[in-house]
């Protein structure tokens, strides 16, 4: 009666999320009935099922599944959960990327927030995002927060988050346009890049310098 | 004025497809104006833009962009295009996976078909899929063809394609259910697995044997 996580992850990676979802239901049912299954594995299985449901745009079911995963995660002894978290720090935190080997609590919260956002439940999405420490925020997380704040007309917070996006990566044109629309000056927007510039030195400067089109487009947007 | 494909691919991988799309438009415009840009690079840029548009669910624009890419691809001398094609044979052919390093003509046709299918234009999607040699079909391609044939009530072709999916991977539950619904017997469905079994020998047999749940679920579906 063995169904492996890898098989489900492979189906998700091939965009066969319908089959992944059905197989994920089998996996979650069998692991929840098995007293030998660790809470860590139960949480991992639930996250995979959540990812399949997300791909199928079954956002409500995905939220419930991710939340169950977080409940199991909370029962894992602290030491092992810390190891898992740090081991995933460099991974993409998009709900479209399946999480196979370890659990990143912040990433799961982000996936829940993304689902709420897809359901136009801004407040619930922001509550979920507030649970992620600001230092742990990735670029997609900052962008989602910016959009949520903007939708809620919290423009000051939205501006801060959009600027954070540009500090991660100057190519997030969406953030540049939003900042211009929110009344931020071109000079102020460009200063976000110069902060990266000061941190990363000449190599990055050369890249920015050759990307004058970016600065021109900022001035045009504002 | 340098925008690199990698920057766009990174944005797509982070699900920042809105920004990827805008940056992709810049990239395509600048490369189409530059007489030094090779047709191969132009095609690659267009595919990246197509992927960003697909993610944004702008299917009509994605179709036009992918078709332009194929036009450039046709102008590439045969030898280099053959190398590109074979170098990508093992890659996932989902439109959700961005294609950075080389061009796979069949994959682009599949992406176009996927867009038509999302627009409920079954016939156009099937025409596109018919351009892919049957030997080059990947699992997601066979599944899309099966669905398209089923929607068009070409049940005999649909059954053949669903069976093809199971020959790729026995875990495509969606295909099992569809075959059962189309009146295929449990014995006939299971025989698809035994074909893989004969090809791959004992190791795969052990896996199948431990997955009796799969055979039980097939019998229940039919």
Automatic annotation (TrEMBL), chains A, B:
TPR repeats span: 43-76
Family annotation (PROSITE patterns): TPR
* UniProt protein name: Anaphase promoting complex subunit
Q: Which organism is it from?
A: Rhizophora mucronata
Which UniProt keyword terms apply here? Answer: TPR repeat
SUPFAM superfamilies per UniProt: TPR-like
Q: Which InterPro entries has this protein been placed in? A: TPR-like_helical_dom_sf, TPR_rpt
């Amino acid at each position: 009666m063995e169904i492996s996580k890898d098989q489900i992850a492979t189906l998700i990676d091939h965009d066969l999320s319908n089959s992944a979802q059905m197989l994920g239901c089998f996996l979650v049912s069998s692991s929840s009935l098995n007293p030998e299954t660790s809470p860590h594995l139960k949480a991992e299985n639930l996250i995979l099922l959540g990812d399949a449901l997300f791909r199928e745009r079954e956002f409500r079911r995905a939220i419930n599944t991710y939340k169950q995963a977080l409940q199991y995660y909370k029962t894992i002894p602290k030491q092992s959960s810390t190891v898992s978290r740090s081991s995933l720090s460099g991974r993409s935190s998009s709900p479209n990327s399946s999480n196979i080997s370890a659990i990143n609590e912040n990433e799961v919260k982000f996936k829940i927030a993304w689902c709420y956002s897809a359901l136009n439940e801004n407040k619930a999405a922001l509550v979920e995002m507030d649970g992620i420490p600001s230092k742990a925020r990735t670029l997609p997380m900052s962008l989602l927060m910016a959009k949520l704040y903007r939708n809620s007309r919290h423009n000051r917070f939205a501006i801060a988050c959009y600027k954070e996006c540009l500090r991660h990566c100057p190519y997030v044109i969406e953030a540049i346009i939003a900042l211009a629309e929110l009344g931020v000056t071109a000079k102020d927007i460009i200063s976000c890049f110069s902060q990266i510039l000061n941190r990363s030195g000449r190599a990055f400067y050369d890249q920015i310098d050759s990307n004058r089109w970016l600065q021109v487009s900022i001035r045009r947007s504002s």
